[in-house]
Amino acid sequence: MAYQTLYLRWRPSSFETLVGQAPVKQALMNSLTSGRIAHAYLFTGPRGTGKTTTARIFAKALNCVNGPTDRPCGECLNCRQITDGSALDVQELDAASNRGVDDIKNLNKNADFAPVNCRYKVYIIDEAHMLTTEACNALLKTLEEPPDHVVFILATTEPQKILPTIHSRCQRFDFHPITQEEIVAHLQKVAEGSDIKAEKEALELIAAASEGGMRDALSLLEQCGVMAETVTAEVVRSVRGIIGREILRELVYAVGQRKVSDALLIFDKLLMQGKDISQILIELSGYMRALLLYKATPEYQPIYVTDTAEELGKLAPLYSGERILAAQQIIHEAMSELRFTARGRITAEMCLYDLCREDNRTLKVLAARINRLEQELEAIKTQGTAVTAVSPDTVAAHRPVSQATPTPQRKDGPAEAAAAQELTVKGEPAEAAKKATIVSEAPKAAPAKTEAPAAATEASKAETPGITLPKPQPIPIVKPEPKPATPSKTETKQSPASVGPGSAAMEKPAPISPEPDVSVSAYTPYGGEWAEGDAFWAKAMERLKAERKNSIASCASHGSVIAYENKVLTVGFKMKFLCDRLQKPDYREVVEEVLLRVARVPIRLQCVVDAGGGKPAGAPAVKMQPAAAKPAPAAPDFPVSESTKKAMEMFGGTIHKV
Ligand SMILES: [Zn+2]
User: Fold this and answer.
1) Of 201, 478, 585, 636, which sees the most CB atoms within 10 A?
2) How far is the CA of 203 from the centre of ligand 1 (A)?
3) How many whole angstroms from 83 Cα to the centroid of ligand 1?
4) What is the C-alpha to C-alpha distance for residues 391 and 413, in angstroms, rounded to an integer?
5) What's the predicted TM-score (pTM) here?
6) What pLDDT digit, counting tens, does each position of 271-290 carry?
7) In what order do the strands lie in the sheet with 171-174?
């Protein structure tokens, strides 16, 4: 008698012997006993979970001489013919190789004829997702109006690829991966019945390696049975190329201790044993996963296939959760690189080296660090300029001001600073601060144009300095009424006289307010302990990081506070893309939400490109002068009508003198 492979010899021939899939079994048996037979079924599930086998059993159950029954006899002619695949009325079609429209047309033609011996004609279409669209449409025709004597069983591993029109005409049954215990129990039975001596541990290893597929498990058992008299865990490992727990532990320990030399020696030893490089990485990754899950939930049983709780408990303290996650990323990158390189050994060695390094520096982490260092360097430079530019007491009192003030100055160069000084007596910090404000102001000034002609002139003046405009905000257009042109005019007329030296006169003409005061009040101080814009920006960053919104935090941390007024926090960015990124609603809203919690006041965030970079030196100074003379401070030091205040709050604007 010819040798039959294990999985064919042990193929279940009845519902009782089918391993696992209890719900599917029960439903099918019920439909058989109650006589409610559908004309199309869809069996879905991973490979080796019993879809085709169940389809055959079902065909037998339909056509057994005693049937339809949930217990086909297996003895009658129909049962025997279906089992050995010679029944004329039960046809198996492999859609992977017969996927064309002609194959299905043939099938349709045959389906019309009455069955030869059986009660039902059963068509089992395996890998049904491989059918072409035309073939599917042809099949659909028969499915729509099926002859009474025909039953279709479609089996597929990828149900999402089945046309919805076909899907909806089928009764769907989902086959699940078979559990570890079920596989082990079945393997034990098969081993006993086939004179294969196998250790329990070996069978467990086989079950774990086959990932719920019985066919894979039986094939592996068979292979191991041929390899050795007794199937031990060692045999299974060598057949599968599994590197083994003991040495894997050593490797994980060496990496955990950051001992590069040990890790490389162990890796070399494994290669000498003929282990596959990608297998080593796969198992290393699997062990890391077990460690991570062990740390998270030690009661999660599936991890103990990888190693015992005791061993995992020993190794777990070597790793932090973050480190394991970073390690997984490094290993996965190496694994995908392995597919494209002829020098896998180098890739794996680099990977191990990377895993052992001080902190697992992925590119992202590195890039973030470089950015931070660059910024710090920039800050150090800026600080140097700041100390010379602003009076020392100011710097001490308000660090954010010192940051906001010198930045434009530095960019404009000494020539412009000198020009500004000529134009306005002692006015250089005012100039610089004013410029920053205009940057923040511009978008709000723009919509004002639509409101009133009086405001328009003022707005256009504010815009003139050619500063990078953030996207216009749609909010002001919604409510144009509360800001009539007249009150704003009168107020702005009052302002120049009423503004005191201590006011928040950002755009205050320099001659009026003395130098230190202007720089101190470069933004409206916020009440309470949050008076310093930078301070609560920094707090917001901390909060973001604490909430693990790292990408937003790292983007936002590049900004420095330029101004805070009318509940609008203006943050400047050197790099436009960072500015644009943070300004987008998805990021901005998160930051605003955090700002709200930090300051306990709704604060709107506005990102601007700092100092409007790239302006020719001198040019802005000339343009600045009229602007410097005209705009009035927005500070509520002088009488402002309620409606204007509201409008300012809503639009976040400032009042300008016309
Ligand atoms: Zn029978």
Assistant:
1) 636
2) 34
3) 10
4) 19
5) 0.51
6) 998 888 988 999 999 999 99
7) 90-94, 121-126, 150-156, 40-44, 171-174
